[in-house]
């Protein structure tokens, strides 16, 4: 039986793509439907920032955001910013506080450094080279992207086996920054620690979690509250891209880990 048969348990429209090191292995559902990526956009923004880092346009130690913060703090949700405002909860580097505003501010910093609109930078340096023909960018670097699962699969494949980044910068993108920080994981409560990369979530020892329970602690990716998600397990060399027609809910929390386990069992 297909690992993706578990999609039927959601009770609403779903689709998914499984990627191995050679490319697509399995798909199910409408993978061409344009879906809001919401916070999955942050992974795209992290990659855009990493490209600017690779070209020497920015440094992770650049001063950016609230006093004492750097571009690294912003991209790793450690700047102290509130969720969606420039007010701060605490000084930078003390706690992992998930912040859309912080990611947007990171994109504005990159935008100034490269001298062009960040959405144009993403289109020209990521979407066009990867062939993401259906990507739609609506302004917010934290939640503004939409696209088909086939486009998200192209992003996942790039993060799985980078062609745009060298290995050192890719390791910065998907590795953990400020590894000791505690924080609230949206939808899953307090996590101690709560690891993140640069605009990308890292699983670590988080429990409960939305990725496979049998996967590597190095698994990374992102989910969006409108029901789109992807993860990459670098040890299994597998990726899963999922889209649903329902906002992230209890069905996602319960089925997504089992779906991940089924994919790993079938394809590892």
From TrEMBL:
InterPro entries: Beta-lactam-related (IPR001466), Beta-lactam/transpept-like (IPR012338), Diverse_Enzym_Activities (IPR050789). SUPFAM superfamilies: beta-lactamase/transpeptidase-like (SSF56601). Residues 37-247 form the Beta-lactamase-related domain. It holds the Pfam family Beta-lactamase. This is Penicillin-binding protein.
